[in-house]
Every structure is written in C-alpha cells, then in structure tokens.
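Morning. Coffee machine broken again, so started the prediction first thing and wrote up yesterday's gels while waiting. Chain of 361 residues, entered below exactly as on the submission form.
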Amino acid sequence: MAISRLLVEKFRNLTAVDLNFDPGFNFLVGNNGSGKTSLLEAIFYLGHGRSFKSAVTNRIISYDEPHFTLFGQIQESQHQWSVGLQKLRQGNTLVKINGEDGNKISDLAHLLPMQLITPEGLTLLNGGPSYRRAFLDWGLFHHQTSFYAAWSNLNRLLKQRNAALAQNQPYSAIKVWDVELAKLAHQVSQWRADYAEALRPEIEQTCQLFLPELEINVSFHQGWEKNTDYAEVLEQNFERDRALNYTFSGPQKADFRFKAQGLPVEDVLSRGQLKLLMCALRLAQGEHLMKEKQRHCIFLIDDFASELDQYKRALLAERLQQSGSQVFVTAITQEQLKEMQVENRKMFSVDNGIIKTLDSI
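Came back before lunch.
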C-alpha cells in the first residue's frame, strides 16, 4: 500500500500541494514551523479522518476558508484507488472513494493502514491505558473483520448503561442491556487477548534488536478479574457503579502493559529508550499485518533524529527498508538523514508551507 500522489488544499499553512511520492522513502526537510509536520498531518487525516495534533477542525482549515480538501491516489500491487476527503468548518466530513459518495471514515482507514511515530507518541508507553487499548484495537480493526461492529456496539451499550446509572435507575431496568453488554465484552476481550498473544513474540523479538540490553515483557489485562463472568461482575457491582455514575470494570479498562526488568517501562527506561521501544512496537505491529494479511502499512515519522543516536537511526532505517513499506520522514537538515541510505527515495524541501521536490539527498 502506497500513496502515489497527494493533493492538499487549504490545510493549515500548506500552499496548494500537488506531490508525487516514492513507494519507498520520502524525506521532508525544513526548519521548525515550515510545514513538514502539517504534511504528515494531512496524510494521517486522509487515512483516519482526524488529526494527530488537534481535535479542533477550525484550527486546521486555513484562515477564513470554508473547508480543506485532501485527495490521494493509492497503489497496492495491481490495484489503484482514488480517495478524497473534505472537512467543512461546520464539522461535516465528505468522503469519496473512486469518485463515489456515501463512504465512511472507516472505509478510508481500511484502505490506508498507517503507523505514526512522533515525539508525542510516547504516550503509548507512559500515558493511560486508553492509548494501549487503541494500539490493540488498531490491529484488530485490520485483522478481524467483525471487530469494528462489535467494538462500536460495545461502546454504545456502555454509554447507555452509564446514562441509566446517572439517572439512578434500578438494576431491573439495566439488566436487559447487561446481557448483550457481557456477550460483547467477552468477545472483544477474547479478540484482544488473542491478538496480544500473537503479537507478543514479534514485539519481544523486535525489542531485542533495538534494546538488547533490556528484557521487555508484555501482558494483556482484560479490565476485570480473569476467568470471571462479566455479567456477574456487572450485577454484583451495580450499587457501586450507580454511586459512581459509570461502569467501573470492563473492557473499557483493558490494558496492554510493558515491563523492563520486571518494572513498568516508564519507571526504568530513559526517554531515548522509550522512543526506541515505541518504534519497535509500531514496526512489529506493521510487520505482523504484512505477515498475516499481506498488507503494508504506511509509516509516518516526525522529527526522525530526535533522541536517537546515529547507530539507532541506521538500525531503524534498515528495518523500515526491509519491511517494504512506504515511509514519510521529517527532519530539520539533510545531515540528520545521512544514516538513511536507502535505494528508493525522494527528497522534498519545505519552507513556509511551500513544498518542492529535490533531485537527491
């Protein structure tokens, strides 16, 4: 999977972008504030229908414009797609695939699996459990066709239950929802557990490559006591949940935990080591998708050189090249990219929102 062409209009400070990309590596070089990260953000938005920087649409649309527009041409083996996304200032989102209306953001996400590596991405390791659940759920979204519908229904039922709890309704009024909620909770949790277990050896192997001095272990926690019927948990804890006005235990509290030398990684690893671990996790997940589904991720890497020494940068570049994926990398100078001596590549300069194609590194 690769984006062969990208058009961007009225997105942040970018000036009418129309670029052709290499299916391998694409390097974006420019000073801070030049627009490098904005281009990564536009690519991410095309694949997710949201930003990784801001939840406020009006901050993304260029000043005094009614909307922004993204258009991409996608290539995978012998197949081609054209995709378009327009976001209006009022909040509406229009999605087209091969010129047809009526598509959903989830359809774009299926077409464009992406892995994002940014300095802020360390929340995967030192942030709350929601970041690690999202990591697992991303994989299941692409591996298990029934997951998205089950996950959506689970969240809908949890919201309904929490609303009923806030209204101080008796358990007899809630039990009918709990039956279906428990069924979905067990299914989603089993999928998460199975996926975590399938991913575990690949994570540990990749971590051994990037952090050979440490022993990294992973474990999945479903959000309530193991081998316990979730329906019983809901019933037994009803009074506590009603006092709290929300459902305390369940798949919405699941976690995927990482330990080094038996301790939480955020308590043991330096910031540079945490970045390496985050890179290892993203790589392992992308490679697992390729192995199981024969689909390549697109890797977006912002501020490549930050907190990585020359050896680790070269190691990451080598592993990315071996993956056969399309990669977008930002850096302040070309000097920071000298370790990325890859065969298939394109270089772009970014200056005050204007992006130009350069001949070579």
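The CA atoms of residues 84 and 157 lie 32 Å apart. Going to sketch it on the whiteboard this afternoon.
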